[in-house]
Design goal:
mainly alpha, 82% helix, rod-shaped
Length: 56
């Protein structure tokens, strides 16, 4: 019985570590996406002389 508990716990631990690594990777890619999006927004705003605080 003890061996079964240890095996199941080990499996859950490995799955949890893999999930953490996957989420960490996704978070990194999402952060890069947000930075690129902000740079592109700034470039577009600058090319059309737009200001975010300005209301139309």
């Amino acid at each position: 019985m003890l061996v079964t508990v240890i095996i199941v716990s080990s499996i859950w631990l490995v799955l949890g570590i893999r999930q953490f690594a996957m989420l960490k990777s996704w978070n990194s890619r999402y952060s890069n996406y947000i930075k690129k999006k902000e740079k592109l927004d700034e470039k577009i705003s600058a090319s059309f002389d737009l200001d975010e605080d300005q209301e139309t």
